[in-house]
């Protein structure tokens, strides 16, 4: 129940058990082709939109957005926490201007404030974090995108903790990025980006981007691979892409709609359990709840000790990393192949651990609330 | 017998079969720690030298060298082929000046020429490619490094196709980089760099580097991991590092000296076979031969057809990619866990394929030469 | 949560991923040697006692006991259910005489009755089933063995559903047998037997046994393997034994005492949940409870439907197979690597399934009882 | 290059990586069903013929033939070596009469002699070994079967080292048996038998067979499984059958005819190499050659030392086990997924090893003969 890398299905892992597969092999090219086409379906993309799968992860995918920026461009960063702030850390290494809108801990930046700022001043791009991994806060990205579409050239969404677990579509968005090791349920090693036609058209030699993370260099590879032809720019993570293709197969077997519903159902059950045992959630209001990450505030015990005890009981949770809430919370990840048993086992173990450590919880009440939510 | 990704031992692959391992897990941290310490031993490094393992591969490791460069720095690139030229392509995206010394196809840039240029003009850094993957040419890097040590601040070696298969040591070198999927025998997904103390001291916020490939950002992670403590900058390729640690174990079990000898022995046997059947090698003189890649010139047949037929017989070779020799050669990779049987099977199949396609070879003669070399 | 094959650790499964290992290979011989020595430790055996690992499973291990019987021998079978009765089915194919003592459903044959029968008439052997898989009933084998030790030549225990999960020792017992796929946590494919010195001495060409299941034929193989020397009688299940050795390693890491305690703790939690939700257990009194299998009686619903719905929720239970209770119960297996999360998830899902199917259960109450038992 | 267990494809092994699959699971039942149907196709069986897959291996499959014999039956055993003699060892444990016809070492029992004996005296059954694993001798079973069909009730063939590598069909044969770990390319753990309608009709409670290896007990399981319905008699080797189904898939993809041709081609190349380097083959005449096993006679060196040195070079051969030729030969197995590279590598290594040990061989000549045979 970590926020990522998540638990991975053995059927996915088995695809990596290949000792003799090169980047020109038929199997690899087919897996790459399948994955790109699956991305198109997942994001309900139009033919001129363009999927990318590049080595690295979420942060490298974020940095590759520099392929769309030119010297002097202005970027508005909408930050609900640590990973929102990361956009600023990345972009400040490049000759572009950055302004950050920050939310209060437990809340998201409201669409009104974003729209206002974009009306106030002209920006090339705005970035948003769909689900802020550090707190579990969800930004209403589709509403924002609709309202600011005409005000800004590029709308960029970090979907690292949302893609395939929250509503996923490229509508009004130019870059929707994620990483292999989150809700897609593959080991870490690749960043995935879906670009709108508008974004693809901005790829040029004049961007501020470097070489390896420059999407322009990867574009011909993506096009060849999607046509089923091998191509080389730099060595791709061959085994990982064999696994990723399997993950996409499993995702399509479940169906995006069912998948989002399942994540919603499990997250509700977990929140019910948390509240049932008498604890509070970091997200201050239901609109900010996410399907994938729940921040849990504790009153008395040390969150680090909770994580340690949970680990000893076989359940790995994630520490709280938002500086403003340091030492006050921990996080439960619930994405990928999570199911009802995971929710029940997590709440049961958490109850016992908190009880043992002296946090005032009533044994069995959180569990009952989760059970009633699931029934 | 590809130039990379190479054939991977199933014992290495099995380490990746973990569904539940996060980047804070004890097993991952221990695998990372072991790999960093193994790098120190492999390169015979001093305590203040610093190993790095970062996501990506050879090209990203090359680009991360920008972490050591400042605006306006001058870099001399010694290029023996496609991957030497890549340094120019990467560095030209950054505000540094680049000059390239290019070798004739089939030869390397002589130490005299390099020394002369570095005496003629002051450069911050010189880059060399230990074994040029595109042609199989080996540069005498240790001789060059010794001769130019006092003339230049940073001596950078691309050891992608050499580390652990050719003599490997940090002597007089500031950056020695490689990738997981070459002679180390792990799937692709990580770049590895060994930095001298001198290089580590140059890491600063003033470098021209971006964010994800900026070694300064990864330095605290490497130091924590080597101390056995988890740490986070961006999600590492967890499963890959579990596999890499296993590869290092196998490498240490064999011993570096034995490993280099084995590669030398197999490469000699392959060259004997090639010449025995009447073909020539791209490398023009024995000093340019490498232990890891052999370029093979054909007279009559189409190299692409040779590769296709070899593939049908279960042996994957690599195409020739040096533009000056386009359509005239193909490559045999012989790195990682190659053994005598691989050499024999490759030469045998190659003889039969070339014979069938009409190249003038004498059946059995190449094979006999390989056998006599091995006996 | 099946009664077997149980859930298997991926670390065990990975040991079978060997494409090139023959029955004379060092690794196989070492795995066999390790497994035999681990059996000695598990059963606290004396030097002249003898472990056997033979192809097949529980039934073949039972049949191999014919290696100790001669024409005309009399065997007393103590049967608490289907697998007790199996002794009669097996032995009736051989020229020996069999008498069966049968327990009431939900109970075991009392030590008094067994002792009385053995006093009344002279038998060569008595067989008991430690835990009767068909009902989850445990026989007090150590008490019986102590009381009848002087009355009978051979005391034989079927420990298929008990070894390593209930108290396991060869004390006063001549043959203690099990199968790889039960509490040992390895895939099915091998039967394991621990023979006392007394039993080993009875192995002779005069037995009624056939050839393949004749322990006399396997004895020299076992002795060679334990000395680390390859030996052949018939091809052993090579990959399975590599896995079995890993299972024994994991078992020794946990320790037998801890392992039995864990099974006891989980079985208590499951029984608490069953009773908490208002259902009854097949075993009529606590002395008959086992650590590994719980039979659950339902009042209203069809057990087959319960199993079907449980399966759909990802938890596989086992059908009731005792003819006297046909259609009235199902079974929960809790052996191998079961933990608290398994107990919680099983009870939670069972509650929801039974509730949905119309069995009168109070949602959350069984779960709470399990949680309190575990806290 | 062992005579079994043979080298196993990783795609087959991966199928066994299942931690949660029971013997009632849909996947297992489907794999069993597929395997049984594939057996029918492999043997070109008629609808009333019956395939069996039972735990164990070749020897247990042989012993299960007792299911067809009644007290007092007479069996003629045609033995070309160790595994022919094994029939006698097995059957002598049962109340039937056995007579053995033995061939000279290096030869097979001629059809004339068999026919003559069956005319001379009435036998219930005759057994033959298609390819005698201990020597590599092939018996002309189809000719014999045709000639003696009317003289005997049951014609039984041990196809352990032949099925799918030599011509495979049930024509005029009543029982054709093999084991999973031979040319089928699956790990050891199962015996496979194809029974004619005539043989199926003989299954009765009156047979001399025991319980576990009694085909009558397994018959309802085979019928249920083939209809896609789970069934239980004793726990089958679940994981092995998942792998076996994959092997059958790969076999059907290649096609039986191609598969037999490939085995023939590789065996010819190996024999050419052996003779090319100046050694002799155990089989005295070409009619006795098999596609799967070649016995190699040495003049000067100790075969055990040859095997040891081969092992050190990464190629496992098998010792000679025929008592009459003890210390004079070793065996090369070439079944399963053997290819041209295996033949070349085996001959090359063997040449070097024999040369090094002092056997008079001419380096490169055996290899050249193999190469010319393959070209």
Automatic annotation (TrEMBL), chains A, B, C, D:
Keywords: Aminotransferase, Pyridoxal phosphate, Transferase
Cofactor field: pyridoxal 5'-phosphate
Top-level taxonomic group: Archaea
Database matches in SUPFAM superfamilies: PLP-dependent transferases
Domain Aminotransferase class V span(s) in chain numbering: 25-325
InterPro entries: Aminotrans_V_dom, Aminotrans_V_PyrdxlP_BS, PyrdxlP-dep_Trfase, PyrdxlP-dep_Trfase_major, PyrdxlP-dep_Trfase_small, SP_NH2Trfase/AEP_transaminase
Biological process according to GO: glycine biosynthetic process, by transamination of glyoxylate
GO MF: alanine-glyoxylate transaminase activity; L-serine-pyruvate transaminase activity
UniProt name for this protein: Aminotransferase, class V
Taxon lineage: Archaea, Thermoproteota, Thermoprotei, Sulfolobales, Sulfolobaceae
